[in-house]
Design goal:
With 90 residues, the protein is α+β, with helices and mostly antiparallel strands. The protein contains 3 helices and 5 strands; from the N terminus they run βααββββα.
Length: 90
């Protein structure tokens, strides 16, 4: 089974979510542990990472055989998630 690794900024986002959205995102994260390349997964343009949409939120992650790393969680309709990706990985 893969180990789940979430960066501190993503943990803060999770802690600030309303209960319904928190449940949706966390449920999806646990599903990614089993199948990190599900049908709704897309490769992020310009980065070697994957993204999924969970309700109003987008989750950017990568994975290996033994780890699922959550890199960024943010609003889907907000370009801040992509700005954060550029700041963090370029």
């Amino acid at each position: 089974m893969r180990r789940l690794s979430i960066d501190s900024a993503s943990i803060k986002v999770l802690e600030s979510l309303p209960p319904k959205h928190f449940r949706q995102v966390v449920t999806r994260l646990f599903a990614l542990l089993r199948d990190p390349h599900a049908s709704d997964t897309r490769l992020l343009k310009g980065f070697p990472f994957y993204r999924i949409s969970v309700g109003e939120y987008r989750v950017v992650y990568d994975y290996s055989d033994d780890e699922l790393r959550i890199l960024v969680i943010g609003k889907r309709n907000d370009d801040e998630i992509y700005k954060a990706m550029r700041r963090k990985f370029e």
